[in-house]
Design goal:
By secondary structure, this protein is an alpha+beta fold. It has 2 domains: about 5-55 and about 165-295, no CATH class; about 60-155, Alpha-Beta Plaits (2-Layer Sandwich). Helix content is about 70%, strand content about 10%. Strands 2-3-1-4 form a 4-stranded antiparallel beta sheet. The two termini are about 20 Å apart.
């Protein structure tokens, strides 16, 4: 595609946008609205996912060991636990450490005075690579009871709740993106269709004088791409300005002040190219669909 043709295609695309400015504005605003909702869902989902990952670190598994297990048995049990699939780290807690942990729970440590540390079970604190493997790891740990495990403490209900919430957010975001993208494609298709119908006579003349199909199609494709790009820049600008303000307000709430949120640059490093790409894709699909159905060349 040489410079002269490129300039002609761009000129025709801009001319069509101006001539059909009402429908063009409607298409741009529709794309912008849809992508704004997509951006909000992405920012919300990303932050919730980030918070859930913070909670994952606080939901561990504790394996208590029988008091009659000797040092050699502890080493064997440690190796077996460490070799379990999806295991990230294993921390051994001796009698004295367990006693000091319990003592820190009380304002008056003297309440435990006279109780020997050996009365508190030794244990292994486990951290897994991903909370989704929580039940799998627990099932493998239950096979090691005969090696001296006294009890396994694990927050299975909380783990399952976090996994379910995370999955619902991911699926809801995907469904919402598909629905909104479909709405945008329909609006853009109608916009391009009006342009095609208005220029049908001109298109027929161009065909008679030897214009190729792609020579006729390119201005319409570029028009759809321009609608997608302009429509995607609006939500990016809105989110860029509003994100930090919203986070600042949310952090000011007393109940949520201890929660960490994603930094703005961490959100936009993916959101910006994703929204631009989605806008271009929607515009291209909308114009291509309209041309295929209504441009008989």
């Amino acid at each position: 595609m040489n410079f002269r043709r490129s300039r002609y295609f761009l000129g025709e695309a801009f001319r069509s946008l101006i001539l059909n400015r009402l429908m063009s504005i409607a298409s741009i605003l529709t794309v912008a609205s849809c992508l704004l909702i997509v951006s909000i869902f992405y920012s919300l989902g990303n932050n919730i996912d980030f918070i859930l990952h913070q909670l994952e670190g606080s939901i561990g598994i504790t394996v208590f060991v029988d008091n009659d297990v000797d040092a050699e048995g502890l080493d064997r049990l440690y190796e077996e636990i460490l070799n379990i699939d999806h295991m990230h780290s294993v921390l051994y807690i001796c009698h004295q450490q367990a006693f000091e942990t319990v003592m820190s729970w009380y304002d008056d440590p003297s309440i435990l005075e006279g109780i020997p540390p050996e009365n508190f079970n030794r244990s292994f604190n486990l951290e897994i690579t991903d909370l989704r493997y929580h039940n799998v790891v627990v099932a493998q740990l239950e096979e090691l009871y005969d090696m001296g495990i006294y009890r396994i403490r694990q927050d299975q209900n909380i783990a399952n709740m976090i996994i379910n919430v995370s999955n619902v957010i991911r699926w809801a975001s995907m469904v919402m993106i598909l629905i909104l993208a479909g709405v945008s494609v329909i609006i853009i298709t109608n916009t391009i269709r009006i342009t095609v119908n208005a220029r049908q006579t001109e298109i027929n003349i161009m065909k008679y004088v030897g214009a190729t199909d792609w020579f006729i199609r390119w201005p319409f494709l570029i028009e759809g791409i321009l609608i997608g790009i302009i429509g995607s820049l609006i939500p990016v600008a809105v989110i860029w300005v509003g994100y930090s303000q919203i986070i600042r307000v949310v952090r000011g709430m007393p109940i949520i002040e201890f929660i960490e949120f994603r930094a703005g640059h961490e959100i936009f490093v993916f959101l910006f190219p994703f929204v631009i790409f989605l806008g271009v894709l929607i515009g291209t699909i909308g114009s291509a669909t309209s041309i295929r159905k209504h441009l008989h060349v």
